[in-house]
Amino acid sequence: MRQFALAILVSAVTAVVYAPIGLLWWRRARVRSRTLRLVAAVEPEPYHAAVLRNEAAEAATAELVLDGYLRIDGEGAAFLTEQGRDPARRPAHPLPAALLEAVRRHDPEPVSIGWIHWYDEDYPERLRAYRRERDALLPGIPRMPGGEGNLLLACGSCAGIALVMLFWLLAGALLVTGRPHGPRAWAWTAVAALGLAALLLAEKAVRLIRERTEPGDPLGDLMRSAAHPAFAALDEEQRTVVLLSTGDRHAWRGVDTVVHQEADDEDDADDDEWLDDKVWWEDAYEYRASDEDEPGASSR
User: What pTM, to 2 d.p., does this model score?
Assistant: First the structure.
């Protein structure tokens, strides 16, 4: 009789524990399937994908170089070509057009693309506006259910786990101390033992469901799947100088500052000060020498 009661009780508790686990699996599988369908329907715009990869400056610079608007030297300084200085000509896409306008504002002094990307007044704002506009067109990715961030659900789960573990200890003790008599009693004992084993595996089952139904970052994978066509079309030398210019934030600053001007002024000031000191010491030496010669001349 004890084995029968234990089998019924353990089976009921196991069903109560695994019902939410099964519901979690069903919900997460549906969300994962819907997420993959939504992402499969997305056709990423090349510049939007470059923005999401933080490669917008590289892509826009590559297009300007390929179309003959910019020339970048071996030190990463960008210069306008004759075509780039023509105000009637500009790229069709807003991002390279904004970058070209920024370079034109610094002409005729050389400027690095990295400096424009970080410190220009207009280009970063237009880049953010473009991203907001394109992000609004992306489909809303459904949130994966899991209870993260729900304090009440987390507390309830902890209390439920504690109760299940207490029940498991009591049921296990009753099962071990009981002595089944006959095949039927042994069968009920086996049912109770299987139920207790299933309760032990509940946490592992939840982890396995989360791993199998986790969609990852399919939208990010789609955006990172290929480089921008303009950047991919550059040869090795062009790609090197483009990356050098976009990664340089300080060396070339256009008309805003003159490179090394302050250091040159300090060197000139030090030279002038040294020359003044030299002249002062020479004058003092000549004055002292003439002062010492006067008594000797008068005694003779």
Answer: 0.67
